[in-house]
Design goal:
96 residues, RNA-binding protein, Translation Initiation Factor IF3, alpha+beta, RNA-binding_CRM, 21% strand, RNA binding
Length: 96
């Protein structure tokens, strides 16, 4: 589990990132979870935007992604979800 200090640190690192994935009408599916998981392994920290035509609310989408990828939810801001998962092979982010 991330501490408040670690979440603040990750939020500042995520600030300049652009969303890589978009969750739209189809919601979250197995294929998306696999792709998000692979991207997290490569990048550790990423943003996902929830489009307006998504039928589920952003909290539900975030919960599904967190459960599917075993990542940590850093924050939900507007329609953007920020996820963090420590990489096994290319660990770059050192948490405070």
């Amino acid at each position: 589990m991330l501490t408040g200090k670690q979440k603040r640190f990750l939020r500042s690192k995520a600030h300049h990132l652009n969303p890589i994935f978009q969750v739209g009408k189809g919601g979250v599916n197995e294929n998306m979870i696999r792709q998000v998981s692979d991207a997290l392994e490569a990048r550790e920290l990423m943003k996902i935007s929830v489009l307006q035509n998504c039928e589920e609310d952003k909290q539900t989408v975030a919960d599904q992604l967190v459960q599917g990828t075993n990542a940590e939810l850093v924050q939900i801001i507007g329609n953007t979800i920020v996820l963090y998962k420590e990489s096994k092979e290319n660990k770059e982010i050192v948490l405070p």
